[in-house]
Amino acid sequence: MSATPSIQKLSLFALTAMVVGSMVGSGIFSLPRTFGIATGPFGAILAWCIAGGGMYTLARVFQSLAERKPELDAGVYAYAKAGFGDYPGFLSALGYWMGSCIGNVSYWVLIKSTLGAFFPVFGDGNTVIAIIVASIGIWLFHFMILRGVQQAAAINTIVTIAKIVPILVFIVILIFAFKADQFRDNFWGGEGMPDKGLFEQIRATMLVTVFVFLGIEGASVYSRYAKERSHVGAATIIGFVMVTSLMVLVTMLPYAVLPRPDIADMRQPSMAAVLEAVVGHWGAVFVSIGLLVSVLGAYLAWSLICTEVLSAAGRTRDMPALFGTENENKVPAAALWADQHRRPALRHQHLLVAGRFLADAQSDERHEFDPVFPGRSLRAPAGQAGRDL
């Protein structure tokens, strides 16, 4: 039994994959159109400097705390408890856990609505078949995690690599298709640029630039599984640099292959539409598959994070002590079961309500952004409802 905990330790690479896996979900696939609507390359550069600079300071905070307070586990919750007391710590754990549960359910709405573009039986993600398939998927993830955190983390590492590949292919193809004249024409916005000041253009991107950085605390939450505490801070910084580089390239390169108005009018996920415009229909299919893998990977990463926060609160008696117990595989099984039992009601309500909202919003020109997936446009031409993801 004494050897079991050592088996569960995670390497620097696995912790970095936890950060990347939780940050790269659906948001990155919508960046070209989101920025194309708001601004040109100059405004995009400033927007990423502001958002990236702010998030870099946050990443350094997590790195510093991991080094100065190595005895604290579970990241945000542990730091809130140590800094402000038991009750703020409890509120932090409860709020973080509930927010993660709701966010995890929304992943399945996106998965099923994406599949609905190719298989009508899934509709907008709110059909009976969509709910059944989502339920099966959630329980498959549940029993996989019960087999061991290390196994789940290893699978997360593989999935993280798999979902980065389509993004790298997209970047490489657009680098070869780079047109300096097109980028220069778009630099200040190009033709049809809305009459807005630079500040307004940058502000229009802030919602999505903050959204895509969620999950930067992934390694910090799983700090007790790190082989070395120094790996926690290093994984946070490495993951931040990797993901930021990908997001900046995904944002900037489309300006060098297509006019900004064309990018702004594309359906979501706009990464798929951009690649389709460059290489043909297979590009859209390729990116759509990448999106599904990415969202499934993000769901796994956030399931692990969500369970660990509840378990840590149980171990310190800020939550019922039952949530801090572990099974023979050293998995916080009670916390995982609580997480899973909370989701069915949330899932069914969320799928039905969100699916209905998406269908209604797509026919309403007043709706510009989807509150479930910030940065995702809800406007769609007639006959494309369910395809504008």
TrEMBL record:
<protein>
    <submittedName>
        <fullName>Arginine:ornithine antiporter/lysine permease</fullName>
    </submittedName>
</protein>
<feature type="transmembrane region" description="Helical">
    <location>
        <begin position="117"/>
        <end position="141"/>
    </location>
</feature>
<dbReference type="InterPro" id="IPR050367">
    <property type="entry name" value="APC_superfamily"/>
</dbReference>
<keyword id="KW-1003">Cell membrane</keyword>
<feature type="region of interest" description="Disordered">
    <location>
        <begin position="368"/>
        <end position="389"/>
    </location>
</feature>
<dbReference type="InterPro" id="IPR002293">
    <property type="entry name" value="AA/rel_permease1"/>
</dbReference>
<keyword id="KW-1133">Transmembrane helix</keyword>
<feature type="transmembrane region" description="Helical">
    <location>
        <begin position="278"/>
        <end position="302"/>
    </location>
</feature>
<keyword id="KW-0472">Membrane</keyword>
<dbReference type="Pfam" id="PF13520">
    <property type="entry name" value="AA_permease_2"/>
</dbReference>
<keyword id="KW-0812">Transmembrane</keyword>
<feature type="transmembrane region" description="Helical">
    <location>
        <begin position="202"/>
        <end position="222"/>
    </location>
</feature>
<feature type="transmembrane region" description="Helical">
    <location>
        <begin position="90"/>
        <end position="111"/>
    </location>
</feature>
<feature type="transmembrane region" description="Helical">
    <location>
        <begin position="153"/>
        <end position="178"/>
    </location>
</feature>
<feature type="transmembrane region" description="Helical">
    <location>
        <begin position="12"/>
        <end position="31"/>
    </location>
</feature>
<feature type="transmembrane region" description="Helical">
    <location>
        <begin position="37"/>
        <end position="59"/>
    </location>
</feature>
<feature type="transmembrane region" description="Helical">
    <location>
        <begin position="234"/>
        <end position="258"/>
    </location>
</feature>
